[in-house]
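This protein record is not my work; I was only asked to verify it. The record follows directly below this note.
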Amino acid sequence: MMNPQLAWARFPMDPNQLDYLVPYKQFYEYTKRTSNRRIDDEDVQKRYSHYKEKFAARQLSQFFSANKDKQWFLEKYHPTHSRARYEEMIQRRKKYMQEFLASLEQGEFDDVCFDKKPESSTAGEQPTDEEEEYESRLVIKTVPPTIAREKILEMCSKVEGFDYLALSEPQPSRKFHRIGWICFQQGTDIKKAFDQLDNQKVDDFVIHLALNRKSAAQNRTPRTAPEITQSADRLKKDLDQIKELATALEAMLSEEENGMKLVEQRADKVIAEHSDADEIYKLKKKLDMLITYLRHVHMYCYYCGVECDSLEELNRKCCEPHCRASPEASSPSDSKSKNEKGGENDFECSNLSLIGSLFL
């Protein structure tokens, strides 16, 4: 009887028949053993690159076939179905632009600084249940991938004070279920809204809601960017990059009003009031005010590189502020990549236009 190990050595598995990406070494051995002619390492490298491209295309096609009829997928990628969500996001950003510029003019962001501050060991006095206030939004604990956004909106629109609905990115580790936030106008009786909406049925699914206390909103530890972000060279680079980014995001709004320009003008005014300020202070002031602008208006965290459809989703992935670590305060656990926190369970495709084209 033939030894199985010898059989494997004689007849290696074709990587194209496997449902996982094989490492280069395994592909190299397979190619060398099965090729009818002599091939060099450069040729094998080209073949491996081609193999990886084919594998990625096959994975994308399989993912598309498995999810193309699910509501979350249609709402995110379908050329027609995604328009309503996109237009709602644009209108919300325009509203945030007006609110931000009004606050900017009043000087509310003049003192913003994203240098990491020493942690305080003293905790504030906790309010009693009678004194405690709730946020003006309800959390939908889970939204199945088969539930349409429009049906949840229809349910919410019947409640007085309803403002908008925000849904998170689908989470692959939870079978592409999402989290939702039903947001209300300030002054709405949130407990009454909770009683009206909790345990309501959408199709065959029962909606379960939660109330969030305002005092519990910042119990999470903010993320920290690497200490290199404190250097003058990195600050200059970040300032140049964030201006390019702001220009691109503003182009999506088709607004004549240039929010970035107004932020820069305000930063220059603040800097002028500190005539003895050094170059680092000036760079940080401009950068930090623009970081605040991107987050509050365009729902974008600069240091994470994460853009969201809602502030609720952005705060779930990365709570404000995302600070710069100081050399003496940094630790190996301070800096987390966006795949390690916040976005590790969120489906993101590196080529959104390619997914959309599969519908055509």
Remarks:
- Residues 17-67 form one domain.
- The two ends are 54 Å apart (CA to CA).
- Strands lie at 134-143, 162-167, 178-184, 201-202, 205-206, 209-213, 224-225, 300-301, 306-307, 323-324.
- Residues 32 and 302 are 46 Å apart (CA to CA).
